[in-house]
Design brief:
The complex is a heterodimer of chains A (559) and B (320).
Chain A (H helix, E strand, L loop, with lengths): L1 H20 L21 E4 L2 E4 L7 E5 L12 H16 L4 E5 L6 H11 L10 E4 L1 H8 L8 H5 L33 E6 H6 L10 H13 L11 E3 L17 H4 L6 E4 L2 E4 L4 H16 L11 H8 L8 E7 L2 H12 L8 H4 E4 L3 H6 L3 E3 L4 E4 L8 H14 L4 H8 L6 E2 L3 E7 L4 E7 L5 E2 L1 E2 L2 E5 L23 H13 E3 L7 H23 L4 H25 L1
Parallel strand pairs in A: 3-4, 3-5, 7-10, 12-20
Antiparallel strand pairs in A: 1-2, 5-13, 6-10, 6-11, 8-9, 14-17, 15-16, 18-19
Helix pairs in contact in A: 9-17, 11-16, 17-18
Chain B lengths: L19 H7 L1 H19 L10 E3 L4 E3 L3 H8 L3 H35 L3 H12 L6 H11 L7 H8 L13 H29 L3 H9 L4 H25 L7 H4 L7 H4 L2 H10 L6 H30 L5
Classes of the chains: A alpha/beta (559), B mainly alpha (320).
Chain lengths: 559, 320
């Protein structure tokens, strides 16, 4: 017995001593930098004495990017980095080593959070800059780890050439700007299979209201649009009944959500919780009816974007859906290309066989058009030393060059020269489809063109990180991807685009965002599937979160 | 009775130990061999334990400050208590039920296999039921999600509808009433075969004379199973249950790949709760999740001690 007691005491003592001796404090807002020295001369005031800092020379740049940088390790990232280092080195006047860390796209937010919590400013792999989605950015905006780049943005060389002013929305009420969006946001368009419309005897031009839209979905679900003599088809599929994890939340099923917005937003200058509004209850009622009528694929509840996309263009159309709301422009091209690959669309028929539905009356009457989301932003980490020279150097090397309208921007838009695109004469071919259809490409010397994808020689590279149509500073070198499908998709969206509601930035909201998202997801899924009525689901949400959300609204409205 | 100050030999001669330092020096070769292992254990097993101190801190991307027992109060009776207790009791219920059901299934299948006369059929069956164990939980979840989908791609629903058994599809994995039965079924499918290994080994060790004696006594096949096979397995069953009881809180992957927001009430376990609070939040408080993890470890350690005690009682030796 004595031995046991002694062992227990020793174990407790060991744990206690480990806990005590490991207690080195972490100062996440530390004053050390990443060991670089500066390109920008600044002055700082210290106790009344003005000192001039040494010029800061940025010799290393560590960035974290998500999957929107399509020049991945498997797709020519080495060449991208090499050319970036060469071009930026020439522009800045000294070499800079670029390191890119690219976590898996779907786990990006969690990985960034871990990185920022576990690495120190003094670590070589502490990020200098990162990409953040708009909602992620709003959550980090209040943490104090991001640099206020308002001055840098206003004084940037590219500022005069900016064609979209969406970055004005990134400034908070005090004019601080913690992230810059190099592109406009883009939004979703509802794509409809023309062959299915023909099969059920309907015309796209007749779809003007929600009732028309719903009749179309019902016809797709019930009138055997694939002609196999059996059921199994659906009107619509989406990645969730609401894309509740990312603003603008309603873009995957806009016809159902109409004027509802299941998140905090500003209406007439006042912050309100859209989830508690009658419009949300009405939207859930419509979705529930669609679920009961079997016009919406039940896989929608848990489907990610990949699964939803692949079901839409599935070679087996007997389990597919007739409509799919997804991103405009480049994705219009991607979807049609995949439909061709799956053998359900003929080459050259893209715009004829997959048509885009203009916003229905209820969307026009509420939002006024299709929602152009808040764009993802680049942020720069603040080392907290009160001296902006490091951060300004990062801005100059990364953001200024990214939007130079010339060679570096071309890298971010199209990728590396002679890897992703070229102006040299060349001939190549791609093979697609079950029938091994060969497409030949021939380019003259000096003709800008995209090459075969480095990781798939049977597809043509489309773009790198920035969409040429959406980038806020247009390319001045005339390099243009003349893809008519992309162009048609962008033109259609631009015709109807309206700015998305601005996401709120609140410290309390940041703390509870994930739980709030879960609670909304539970309420939406329960209401749509009939587990609860929409009224009950929203009432339960209000009972659990109403007071907390009201506190956030008060906090926001007081700003 | 108090022990003598010195240990003695059988004939009462006191044993005088050499000083510790001298004993270490005399056995320095062994200590030298032990040193790498000792360092390895310190670094790999004990150094990470320093992280438990975070349970007494608010630890986020922007700050790390001492908060004492705040997270434990929050966990047991604060704003996070309902989710925490829900996950705690779900863990116990799911784990224990899973343990009992899969053990029972393994015993039944083992007895059945043991009774099979055709060696080829026996070996084939054993191989077939072992296979699911080697599938990862991610693959298993993908198979069953597709299999049980309420969409037109769901085999089970479409089959039942075509037979007229169902009018509408049942969303098996999204309904709280169905989720647990399906979870247990999937576990039976995946783990029963593997679970039979130890029972079949026990069965092969049963003295054949017992069956011969039963035959002479005129016992039927069922009576032989009931009066010979099952009693012979009982001790092994108890040991398997005890050994597994110590691990009941270690439940993550099987739940994580199968659960969803609509069934949190019946499926959320401590590990998935910690995962969500740590990795799904934009700016998580690692202090809170470390506190939950620490509590889980303490309960786990307690269970190990209980199992150790039970093991000593039943089979005469402990598990640690």
């Amino acid at each position: 017995m004595k031995k046991k007691v002694l062992a227990l005491l020793l174990a407790s003592a060991m744990v206690a001593s480990l806990a005590a001796c490991g207690g080195t404090s972490t100062d996440n807002g530390g004053s050390t930098d990443s060991g670089n020295s500066g390109s920008t001369t600044t002055t700082s005031t210290d106790g009344g004495n003005t000192t001039t800092a040494e010029p800061y020379v940025l010799d290393e740049l560590y960035v974290i990017v998500d999957g929107t940088l399509t020049a991945t390790v498997d797709s020519g990232q080495d060449a991208f980095i090499e050319q970036w280092e060469q071009l930026v080195g020439e522009k800045i006047g000294h070499p800079i080593k670029l390191t890119i860390e690219q976590p898996e796209h779907s786990g990006y937010q969690a990985t960034v959070s871990q990185i920022l919590s576990t690495r120190q400013q003094s670590d070589a792999d502490y990020p200098d800059a990162m990409i953040m989605s708009a909602s992620m950015f709003r959550e980090y905006q209040t943490t104090g780890i991001l640099w206020d780049m308002a001055n840098a943005y206003d004084n940037a060389d590219f500022h005069a050439n900016v064609r979209f002013q969406n970055n004005e929305f990134n400034k908070d009420s005090q004019g601080r700007m913690y992230g810059i969006a190099p592109t406009r946001g883009n939004g979703c368009v509802t794509y409809v299979k023309q062959t299915w419309l023909d099969a059920v005897g309907m015309k796209l031009d007749d779809i003007k209201t929600f009732d028309d839209y719903y009749k179309m979905l019902k016809a797709f679900a019930e009138n055997d649009p694939d002609g196999n003599g059996k059921g199994g088809t659906y009107g619509a599929i989406a990645a969730g009944y609401a894309n509740i994890g990312e603003a603008p939340y309603i873009n995957y099923l806009p016809e159902f959500w109409q004027g509802a917005y299941p998140a905090i937003l500003q209406r007439d200058g006042v912050w309100v919780d859209g989830f508690q509004e009658q419009a949300t209850i009405d939207a859930l009622t419509r979705l529930h009816q669609a679920y009961v009528d079997g016009v919406i694929d039940p896989d929608t509840e848990e489907a990610g974007t990949k699964q939803a996309r692949e079901k839409f263009w599935n070679a087996d159309q007997s389990v597919a859906s007739g409509t799919f709301a997804y991103w405009a422009g480049t994705w219009y091209n991607n979807i049609t290309n995949n439909m061709i690959k799956q053998g359900i669309m003929a080459e050259g028929d893209q715009q004829k066989d997959l048509v885009m539905l203009p916003p229905i009356k209820e969307i026009q009457d509420t939002w006024g058009g299709l929602i152009d989301r808040e764009a993802p932003v680049w942020v720069i980490t603040d080392d907290g030393d009160g001296d902006d020279s490091r951060e300004q150097a990062i801005f100059d090397a990364l953001i200024e060059t990214m939007l130079d309208g010339d060679k570096v921007e071309t890298l971010w838009v199209y990728g590396a020269e002679d890897v992703h695109w070229s102006v040299k004469a060349e001939d190549f071919e791609t093979v697609t489809g079950d029938d091994k259809k060969v497409t030949e490409y021939h380019y003259e010397d000096g003709q800008f063109h995209l090459k075969q994808s480095p990781n798939d020689p049977n597809s043509i590279w489309s773009k790198n990180h920035l969409d040429p149509i959406l980038v806020i500073v247009p390319l001045t070198n005339g390099y243009d991807d003349p893809n008519p499908v992309v162009q048609a998709g962008n033109d259609f969206f631009n015709k109807y685009a309206i700015a998305a509601p601005v996401s709120p930035a609140s410290e309390t909201l940041t703390e509870i965002q994930s739980e709030l998202t879960d609670a909304k997801k539970v309420a939406i899924n329960a209401a749509v599937t009939g587990e609860k009525t929409p009224e009950e689901a929203v009432a339960e949400y209000v009972a659990a979160w109403g007071d907390t959300v009201q506190g956030i609204l008060d906090e926001l409205n007081a700003q | 009775m108090a022990k003598n100050k010195f240990e003695t030999t059988s004939n009462g001669v006191p044993i005088r130990h050499k000083p510790l330092g001298m004993r270490i020096w005399n056995n320095r070769g062994f200590y030298l061999m032990f040193l790498p292992v000792f360092i390895f254990v310190l670094i790999i097993n004990y150094w990470p334990m320093l992280g438990i101190r975070y349970s007494f801190y608010d630890y986020t991307v922007k700050k790390m400050e001492w908060v004492g027992l705040k997270h434990f109060q929050d966990m047991f009776s604060g704003k996070n208590s309902s989710d925490f207790w829900r996950s705690f009791f779900n863990t116990l219920e799911l784990s224990i039920m899973k343990l009992l059901i899969t053990t029972a299934a393994s015993v039944i299948v083992s007895v059945f296999i043991n009774e099979m006369g055709n060696l080829l059929a026996k070996k084939t069956l054993q191989t077939v039921i072992y296979l699911p164990h080697f599938l990862s939980w991610a693959v298993t979840a993908a198979i069953f999600t597709l299999f049980l989908s309420a969409s037109s791609t769901g085999f089970v629903n479409e089959t039942l509808k075509s037979w007229g058994v169902l009018e509408r599809s049942i969303d098996f994995l999204h309904l709280p009433t169905w989720w647990r039965p399906i979870f247990y079924l999937i576990n039976i499918w995946k783990e029963t075969g593997w679970g039979t290994v130890i029972f079949l080994a026990t069965l092969s060790g049963i003295n054949p004379e017992l069956y011969e004696a039963a035959d002479i006594d005129g016992a039927t096949r069922m009576q032989k199973i009931w009066y010979v096979t099952v009693p012979a397995l009982a001790n092994t069953v108890i040991i398997v249950l005890i050994l597994n009881l110590a691990k009941v809180l270690n439940m993550f992957e099987s739940v994580f790949v199968l659960y969803n927001t609509r069934v949190y009430d019946v499926s959320d376990v401590i590990s998935t709760y910690i995962y969500r609070k740590t990795f799904m939040a934009a700016v998580p408080n690692y202090g809170f999740t470390t506190a939950v993890g620490l509590f889980k470890s303490i309960v786990g350690a307690f269970l190990v001690l209980v199992c150790n005690w039970a093991s000593k009682k039943i089979r005469g030796r402990g598990i640690i």
